From TrEMBL:
PANTHER family registered for this protein in UniProt: GDSL LIPASE/ACYLHYDROLASE FAMILY PROTEIN (AFU_ORTHOLOGUE AFUA_4G14700), ZINC FINGER PROTEIN
Low complexity: compositionally biased ranges: 352-371
SUPFAM superfamilies: SGNH hydrolase
Keyword terms, alphabetized: Hydrolase, Lipid degradation, Lipid metabolism, Signal
Family according to the record: Belongs to the 'GDSL' lipolytic enzyme family.
Signal found in the keyword field: yes
Pfam families the UniProt entry points to: Lipase_GDSL (PF00657)
Taxonomic superkingdom: Eukaryota
Signal sequence coordinates: 1-24
Annotated organism of origin: Nicotiana tabacum
GO molecular function, one term: hydrolase activity, acting on ester bonds
Gene: LOC107783256
Full protein name: GDSL esterase/lipase At1g74460-like
Region Disordered, residue ranges: 347-371
């Protein structure tokens, strides 16, 4: 960008340089799977994981499908809104320009994506975390060209980052016998493999400027309707839940360690496992009437892999914890978001720091479970 440096502009630039700030907004960059996808997969024409048919989106905006794997908002939507941060558009949205990126950030999340490249191949097209980071690097090139590398560096260092993946690495990889990881690893060595990969990815993000970053753990993914239907008695699959707990523990330790060792890093781990587990066990305490079946289902045929126009909906969508076989409903997401905000102390009204609080955003992914 060629700037004609009129005096006021020069003064502005100097002021910002002096205070070490950046003449730009604080935005979010979101890396995730279907719990955080806001439309990327709808542009992947061969993807089998797309929320592009009714009744997805029925309680969002105009009620048409918008790419979210939910009837309404994702947890990230809700937390970001509460924090006053803009909702980042999907990376593949045609209206994404440098100006939009500088105003709103970018959401790279993709349904079916995992920490591992090989996760979710069954869906044919999806962005795994490495691919999402590749795309982010392309975004950085564009912004550097637009505002110069010095301002761009500040812009990317003051942005908020969310990394919310992992459930597909289990549900759509390790736990499925069609994937070679399922016979190559055991529980312990698979989680080790995930941690080595995630460590490299989080260090890579740091080298690209990420300083304020949140990683979200997994919910009790053995209790999603799909997993219950696959168990003989309709109960939660304990083995799957144990894997989620082990993943959360290892990820939490990894994030603390990286936050302590990477320069200027403020990396946090958010885990909504207990909250979601309690909602599932005691739905009535939270105003829900059902916590074991999907609101959108195809009659008695279970599992229906996705919500489709021919499906029937439950009579009160706000009383179901799960929207489809994998994903929480809008009201469950709201409850999860509120609990995460409380638990992790975001939005502490006593914070007088001028900069917006860390975008807890996306605590959601934690609870996401699949696709
Ligand atoms: C693209 O993003 C804009 C806002 O940034 C939004 O209004 C629009 O609905 C998005 N398009 C699609 C197809 O999701
Ligand atoms: C994972 O995929 C990315 C491209 O998205 C590639 O650059 C990288 O080498 C792959 N890593 C492994 C371990 O296969
Ligand atoms: C860490 O922050 C200090 C003070 O803002 C800055 O001088 C330094 O370059 C930063 N280091 C890295 C690696 O970001
Ligand atoms: C904020 O400060 C008030 C008064 O010092 C205190 O009572 C309150 O607990 C604080 N709230 C939080 C969320 O820290």
């Amino acid at each position: 960008m060629k700037l004609t440096l009129t005096l006021p502009i020069l003064v502005t630039i100097l002021t910002h340089a002096l205070i070490g700030g950046c003449n730009c907004k604080i935005v979010q960059f979101i890396f995730g799977d279907s719990l955080s996808d806001v439309g990327n997969n709808n542009f992947l024409s061969k993807s089998l994981a797309r929320a592009n048919l009714p009744w997805y989106g029925i309680d969002f905006g105009n009620g048409l499908p918008n790419g979210r794997f939910c009837n309404g908002r994702t947890v990230a939507d809700i937390i970001g809104d509460e924090m006053g941060l803009p909702r980042p558009p999907a990376y593949l949205n045609q209206s994404l320009t440098e100006d939009v990126i500088l105003e709103d950030g970018v959401n790279f999340a993709s349904g079916g994506g995992g920490i591992l490249n090989e996760t979710g191949t069954y869906f044919i097209q999806r962005f795994s975390l490495y691919k999402q980071i590749d795309l982010f690097q392309g975004t950085q090139d564009l912004i550097r060209e637009k505002i110069g590398s010095k301002e761009a560096e500040k812009f990317f260092q003051q942005a908020r980052y969310v990394v919310a993946l992992g459930s597909n690495d289990f549900i759509n990889n390790y736990l499925m016998p069609v994937y070679s990881d399922s016979w190559t690893y055991n529980d312990k060595s698979f989680i080790q493999y995930l941690m080595e990969t995630l460590r490299a990815q989080l260090i890579l993000l740091h080298s690209l400027g990420a300083r304020e970053l949140m990683v979200f753990g997994l919910g009790p993914m053995g209790c999603i309707p799909l997993q219950r239907v696959l168990s003989t008695d309709g109960e939660c699959q304990d083995k799957t839940n144990q894997l989620a707990l082990a993943f959360n523990k290892a990820t939490s330790e990894l994030v603390v360690e990286l936050s302590n060792t990477l320069p200027n890093a403020s990396y946090k781990f958010g885990d909504a496992y207990d909250v979601v587990n309690d909602v599932i066990t005691n739905p009535g305490n939270y105003g829900f009437s059902n916590s074991d079946s999907p609101c959108c289902s195809f009659g008695r045929i279970r599992p229906a892999l996705t919500c489709i126009p021919a499906s029937t909906l439950c009579s009160d969508r706000s009383k179901y914890v799960f929207w489809d076989e994998y994903h929480p409903s809008d009201s469950a997401n709201e409850l999860i978001a509120k609990e995460l905000i409380k638990k992790l102390g975001f939005l502490n009204p006593n914070q007088t720091d001028a900069s917006p609080p860390t975008p807890a955003a996306t605590g959601p992914s934690s609870d996401e479970v699949g696709r």
